[in-house]
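Help! Submission page says 'invalid entity' but I think these are all valid:
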Amino acid sequence: MSPPAPHGLLRRPNRYGLAALLSVAILAALVVSSIASLAIGPVPLRATAFGLPAVAFVMGATVFFLRGLRDPEGTMRVRDMTRAGVLLLAGIFLWLTVLDVYTFTRGAGPGVAAACAAACIPTTAFGLLVVRRLDRNEKEPWLLVLVATASGAIVSTSLVIWGETLWDLIFTANLVPGPAADASTAYSAGIFEELAKGAAVLLLYLVMRDEFDDVVDGIVYGAAVGFGFNFMESISYMTHLYAVLAPEGMGAQAAVGQWYWRQVVGLFFGHATYTALIGAGIGVARQLPGLRQRVVVVASGFLVAIAAHFAWDAWQALVLAGVTSAFAQVLLLHARYLFMAGPFLAMVLLLLAMGLQIEGSALTRHLQEEAATGLGGVMPEEVPVLMSPRRRFRDRMAALAGGGPGAYLRLSRLQAAQLDLAMERWHRERNEHDERRGTEEALRRRVLALRTAETRTGP
Amino acid sequence: MNEPREDLRPLYWTMLGLGLAGIVILALGFATLLRFAPPGERTDLRAHVVGVFPYDPASGRVDGPPATRFRRDQAFAAQVAWEQLPPSMVVAARWYDSLDSEVGHVGPEPATDLARHETLIPVRTPPEFHANLPGSYTLVVVRYSRGEPVELLGTHHVVVLRDQ
């Protein structure tokens, strides 16, 4: 017998409507702040004239892409993907025309900017690999993780420019240089950068809630947005320092130094951690029953991320000021990562461990219950394999050895569909059902079809 | 339908605890801001920056008309109308380069002393560099009270051009 329809499903607001509202609010804030900064500030006209539409187009492309990707029937997929492709092309074109505003391409040269970007790709990819691997029970699709990364790199960084410029003009520029001005800058960085990255995570959640299952997924997508932001920010700092110090023959040294701090030491101890905290809040909220609880926990995620970022920047003012010895500076800079970002990274790992434990326990129970139904979605002997990433991988490698890449992919899809089915059962049990994922019955049919295909073409 | 068995309360309370920790950190930050920029210190006085001029370090005098752009190898100095400030007011002026490093300062001294000596504020090229770094340079004029800078009286920006 089918489970009864979850209570409260009809009361849930339309997620796409909320996503559209959030997008309109972000763009409105951007337009207002850019008009204000145009009137009083130094943000180049080109950054506003081309950058604003670029952000709008990329955000639109993301929404259409994700909607098309998750379309269960596939009827709207071609139209949505076409719209996404056109908007993305237009957005990327406009973005490239303003890229030099924050990558200092004019000062450092396009070759240096490209080299900086190339240097940051392997480290960013490593970060994404590690975070995705930590999601051991049900890995997020690479495509969506990369969409999150691109949102952090393109949308969030663009959002920040106007806000920080305005804050600087209104507050920081009127303060005496020193601790007060540094604290003001730290507030600006914490508030605007975390709001911009958090808005990207929230938007992703609203558009693809069926892939955003719990706190673990929130941490993965949050960290992915953070890695994207860190990627662009690293290029920005590397090219800026290169442009300033190259005439003294120290440009390459300065750029490599920035790469070390931001892409090696700070890869996990920075933006990835802060945005993972926001993602964790959204992920926990996804499974809470009451609206008030959800709002409180999302706000908590934003608050701790802003505070963590603020604390990081404030260290500069309170500890590094006045230190002249190079050795002491290097020591203190490393200590800054350990003491200012370390505790927050530890909290992310704690939340991740708690989330994985809860998720693992729930999936095991639902896989066992599904196996006990005898409907064929999951066999009893498959449960321990599905709950062990190592054994899943070993089985896929055996399929690869016996039947080639096709067999590997078929088994991979089957395992993912089985875990989707268990996850769906869990959400249904908790009244967190999402109409976009499809009913349990549809997911079971998909598993059976994949199993048949695997058996028919198996090794 | 089964009752949910997984308890999310520990996650919920952990997030709430983190949110509270965030509020405490931000409040401490605000206290720091107030400590170094105490309210009630505004005099609404403005320091008038006459201009930034090419500068001859040997003679210690300006050497040409005011400008907003300078070559890297060109020394320059700012001139402030110290005499327009209250004589007993303790003030200082500092130059910051495009990396926010201090590259020249005068004071803190009473404005009358600075006015008497027609004190200029030259940019000093750091000893580890051959010439000034390119980018935007900012002059700030600040007022001191009880030995600490408390109010920004004026700012001025010039650009050091990249080598051609």
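Support: the input was valid. A stray whitespace character was the problem, and the output above is from the cleaned input. Confidence is low (pLDDT under 50) at residues 1-13 of chain A.
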